[in-house]
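Explain my protein.
***
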Amino acid sequence: MKKDKKSKKKQKILLIFLIILLLATNYSFLDQKIQELLNEQETGFVERVIDGDTAVINGSSVRLLGINSPEKKEIYFNEAKKFLEENTLNKTVILKFGKQKKDQYNRTLAYVFIDDKNINLELVKEGLANLYFPSGKDKYYWDFKKAWLDCLSKEKNLCEKSKDNCSKCIKLKEFDYKNQRIVFENICGFDCDFNSWEIKDEGRKKFIFENFVLKSNEKIEVIVGNKTNTKTILYWKGEDYVWTETGDSLFLKDKEKKLVLFENY
């Protein structure tokens, strides 16, 4: 009986020793995994909202991932900023990071969550920001794509369709993003005045039509480059490229900045 007790005691001691040895052996592995988890997200306090996609959190500027909201003097700038303020200002949030943690301006790049709600995504749902993935599609991309398509069906804010007579006349015949070239056609039996219409990518790049009329049943090419315009080709000057290899969107808007058409790849 005493031998059995001694044997069990030795087994317990051996088991404890093995557990300690296992933990000691794998400490660096466990520590690495813990650090990886911590580096993927962190808690922050929203001190100030700068605009619809930028806020000061924990003393640092944070650029919200997956979206691009209107700039000052653009339609829905105030609404986007107000929405972000109402949902985040003076609140504790969770920041979840993507492929890059910093941008070229040293701003932190993050998805902002409150109570498991992705605030970045909510801005797209409300039509106060368009989807924006310049570094490539991540695990959240399809949620944002669906939210934008839903927004288009509801015509909310930035997703509102143009009421211009020519909005149903203009068709995107070619979107050759690899060669930075797009072609529009006017399929109607009357001319369309494009003055102050604009083409926009997911980010801040814009091409604004000046004193241009697309005649009935004619086409116009817009090509990124610095050459001289012709009757059938307009050049998007001042840019090396507009459409990114990792995916992008094309927005054509009328002079009231309402959406004529949208294309995505």
